């Protein structure tokens, strides 16, 4: 504060103090200062308003908007990445399911193939066996008829010997065969 | 004179200017208006000069002030009210910084003069009235006739609404002026007690602890009042602006 301003102030108070008892000296109600205060308020507040409107408010609004945009951008990027991840997981799971199906198919094919092979082999073996069995049966039947024919012969001989012993005379061959046939049936 | 609680409100001419018999001097009040504008502008501009995506401490203070006023305006006047944002933000910052600067010892409080607060209140009311008339024409006067009121009651309600509208600039300006004035006078009186009791010997000095404690408490209270009155002034401005935007309640 300048020195002369100070004396000015003292001068002012000295003038107003006696009046203050009546209320007029109360500085806020001193109308002589109103013009100056209104003028300087208009100048300073007008300038302040201009600065706020053209510099400060757009700048802060810009900062806040940038931040909001950035956050929204980051969120959408995160969303996009999440979708990509989900798609990758789905693709992986599909590939896994496909592989599992394929493996299952291969196993089944192999099993079926093995089964047909085995069946064929078994059928062949069974056929072989039954052939052998037939052969064996035929052989046995041959042996049996042979044996039976021999039995007839032996029985004839025995019978003729027995009859010869009993009656002292060998029977005729035709009688013998007839008798044997009736006995064996 | 040191103990005169009114002395702090004295207007002192720093550079006498007189135009056509009118006193337009650059006074201590003008100086503190300039300081208020300089401090508020400098803070808001320098704190945001980094334009940090992640705000620094000072930048977040500016952002908080911005969002505080923006949410106040949006909640009472809607998104349409945002066209008045620079005005409301300027009013809030000007009143807040002027009030807070006044808390420094030996500093002049710009808002402790009725003419300053009245001029600011008139700025608000004229904005509301002129914008309301330009935007809504005669419908602006629906403000005085609330919808749904029976015609007979309207004879009583309308004059009340008119009076309440006319008293707005007075209540708006007197509230801020009186709070700042009374607060500073009270502080000065209690601080004066400390000096005069301290001068009255040992017992007085011991007793001076009481007004000292009171002064400390009042200082905290005055900081609260400085913020609160800026807030109240701004909230009421927002509500009046809402009337200009939506006059039919």
UniProtKB/TrEMBL annotation, chain A:
<dbReference type="GO" id="GO:0046961">
    <property type="term" value="F:proton-transporting ATPase activity, rotational mechanism"/>
</dbReference>
<dbReference type="GO" id="GO:0046933">
    <property type="term" value="F:proton-transporting ATP synthase activity, rotational mechanism"/>
</dbReference>
<feature type="transmembrane region" description="Helical">
    <location>
        <begin position="34"/>
        <end position="52"/>
    </location>
</feature>
<keyword id="KW-1133">Transmembrane helix</keyword>
<keyword id="KW-0406">Ion transport</keyword>
<protein>
    <recommendedName>
        <fullName>ATP synthase subunit b</fullName>
    </recommendedName>
</protein>
<keyword id="KW-0175">Coiled coil</keyword>
<comment type="function">
    <text>Component of the F(0) channel, it forms part of the peripheral stalk, linking F(1) to F(0). The b'-subunit is a diverged and duplicated form of b found in plants and photosynthetic bacteria.</text>
</comment>
<keyword id="KW-0813">Transport</keyword>
<dbReference type="Pfam" id="PF00430">
    <property type="entry name" value="ATP-synt_B"/>
</dbReference>
<comment type="similarity">
    <text>Belongs to the ATPase B chain family.</text>
</comment>
<feature type="compositionally biased region" description="Basic and acidic residues">
    <location>
        <begin position="7"/>
        <end position="22"/>
    </location>
</feature>
<feature type="region of interest" description="Disordered">
    <location>
        <begin position="1"/>
        <end position="24"/>
    </location>
</feature>
<dbReference type="GO" id="GO:0045259">
    <property type="term" value="C:proton-transporting ATP synthase complex"/>
</dbReference>
<comment type="function">
    <text>F(1)F(0) ATP synthase produces ATP from ADP in the presence of a proton or sodium gradient. F-type ATPases consist of two structural domains, F(1) containing the extramembraneous catalytic core and F(0) containing the membrane proton channel, linked together by a central stalk and a peripheral stalk. During catalysis, ATP synthesis in the catalytic domain of F(1) is coupled via a rotary mechanism of the central stalk subunits to proton translocation.</text>
</comment>
<comment type="subunit">
    <text>F-type ATPases have 2 components, F(1) - the catalytic core - and F(0) - the membrane proton channel. F(1) has five subunits: alpha(3), beta(3), gamma(1), delta(1), epsilon(1). F(0) has three main subunits: a(1), b(2) and c(10-14). The alpha and beta chains form an alternating ring which encloses part of the gamma chain. F(1) is attached to F(0) by a central stalk formed by the gamma and epsilon chains, while a peripheral stalk is formed by the delta and b chains.</text>
</comment>
<dbReference type="InterPro" id="IPR002146">
    <property type="entry name" value="ATP_synth_b/b'su_bac/chlpt"/>
</dbReference>
<feature type="coiled-coil region">
    <location>
        <begin position="64"/>
        <end position="146"/>
    </location>
</feature>
<dbReference type="InterPro" id="IPR050059">
    <property type="entry name" value="ATP_synthase_B_chain"/>
</dbReference>
<keyword id="KW-0066">ATP synthesis</keyword>
<keyword id="KW-0472">Membrane</keyword>
<dbReference type="GO" id="GO:0005886">
    <property type="term" value="C:plasma membrane"/>
</dbReference>
TrEMBL record, chain B:
<keyword id="KW-1003">Cell membrane</keyword>
<keyword id="KW-0138">CF(0)</keyword>
<comment type="function">
    <text>Key component of the proton channel; it plays a direct role in the translocation of protons across the membrane.</text>
</comment>
<feature type="transmembrane region" description="Helical">
    <location>
        <begin position="31"/>
        <end position="54"/>
    </location>
</feature>
<feature type="transmembrane region" description="Helical">
    <location>
        <begin position="114"/>
        <end position="134"/>
    </location>
</feature>
<keyword id="KW-0812">Transmembrane</keyword>
<keyword id="KW-0813">Transport</keyword>
<dbReference type="InterPro" id="IPR045083">
    <property type="entry name" value="ATP_synth_F0_asu_bact/mt"/>
</dbReference>
<comment type="similarity">
    <text>Belongs to the ATPase A chain family.</text>
</comment>
<dbReference type="InterPro" id="IPR023011">
    <property type="entry name" value="ATP_synth_F0_asu_AS"/>
</dbReference>
<dbReference type="GO" id="GO:0005886">
    <property type="term" value="C:plasma membrane"/>
</dbReference>
<dbReference type="InterPro" id="IPR035908">
    <property type="entry name" value="F0_ATP_A_sf"/>
</dbReference>
<keyword id="KW-0066">ATP synthesis</keyword>
<keyword id="KW-1133">Transmembrane helix</keyword>
<keyword id="KW-0375">Hydrogen ion transport</keyword>
<dbReference type="InterPro" id="IPR000568">
    <property type="entry name" value="ATP_synth_F0_asu"/>
</dbReference>
<protein>
    <recommendedName>
        <fullName>ATP synthase subunit a</fullName>
    </recommendedName>
</protein>
<feature type="transmembrane region" description="Helical">
    <location>
        <begin position="223"/>
        <end position="242"/>
    </location>
</feature>
<feature type="transmembrane region" description="Helical">
    <location>
        <begin position="141"/>
        <end position="165"/>
    </location>
</feature>
<feature type="transmembrane region" description="Helical">
    <location>
        <begin position="185"/>
        <end position="211"/>
    </location>
</feature>
<feature type="transmembrane region" description="Helical">
    <location>
        <begin position="84"/>
        <end position="108"/>
    </location>
</feature>
<keyword id="KW-0472">Membrane</keyword>
């Amino acid at each position: 504060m300048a020195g002369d301003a100070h004396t000015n102030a003292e001068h002012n108070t000295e003038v107003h103090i006696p009046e203050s008892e009546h209320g007029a000296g109360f500085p806020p109600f001193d109308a002589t200062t109103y013009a100056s205060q209104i003028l300087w308020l208009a100048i300073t507040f007008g300038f302040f308003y201009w600065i706020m409107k053209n510099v400060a408010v757009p700048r802060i609004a810009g900062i806040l908007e940038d931040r909001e945009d950035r956050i929204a951008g980051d969120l959408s990027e995160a969303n996009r990445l999440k979708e990509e991840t989900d798609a990758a997981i789905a693709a992986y799971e599909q590939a896994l399911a496909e592989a599992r199906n394929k493996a299952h198919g291969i196993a089944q094919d192999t099993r079926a193939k093995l089964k047909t092979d085995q069946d064929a082999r078994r059928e062949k073996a069974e056929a072989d066996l039954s052939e052998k069995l037939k052969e064996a049966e035929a052989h046995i039947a041959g042996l049996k008829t042979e044996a039976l024919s021999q039995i007839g012969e032996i029985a004839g001989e025995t019978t003729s010997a027995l009859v010869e012993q009993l009656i002292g005379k060998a029977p005729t061959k035709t009688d013998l065969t007839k008798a044997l046939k009736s006995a064996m049936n | 004179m040191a103990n005169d609680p009114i002395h702090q409100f004295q207007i002192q001419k720093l550079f006498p200017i007189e135009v056509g018999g009118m006193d337009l001097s650059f006074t201590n009040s003008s100086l503190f208006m300039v300081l208020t504008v300089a401090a508020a502008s400098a803070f808001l501009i320098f704190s945001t000069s980094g334009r940090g995506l992640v705000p620094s401490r000072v930048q977040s203070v500016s952002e908080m002030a911005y969002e505080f006023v923006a949410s106040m305006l949006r909640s009472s006047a809607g998104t349409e009210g945002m066209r008045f944002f620079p005005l409301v933000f300027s009013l809030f910052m000007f009143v807040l910084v002027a009030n807070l600067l006044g808390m420094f010892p030996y500093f002049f409080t710009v808002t402790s003069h009725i003419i300053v607060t009245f001029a600011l209140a008139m700025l608000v009311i004229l904005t509301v009235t002129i914008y309301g008339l330009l935007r809504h024409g005669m419908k602006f006067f629906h403000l005085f006739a609330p919808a749904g009121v029976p015609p007979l009651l309207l004879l009583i309600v309308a004059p009340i609404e008119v009076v309440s509208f006319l008293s707005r600039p007075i209540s708006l300006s007197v509230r801020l002026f009186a709070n700042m004035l009374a607060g500073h006078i009270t502080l000065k009186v209690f601080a004066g007690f400390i000096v005069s009791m301290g001068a009255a010997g040992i017992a007085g000095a011991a007793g001076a602890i009481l007004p000292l404690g009171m002064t400390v408490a009042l200082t905290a209270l005055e900081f609260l009042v400085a913020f609160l009155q800026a807030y109240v002034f701004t909230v009421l401005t927002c509500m009046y602006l809402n009337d200009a935007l939506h006059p039919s309640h």
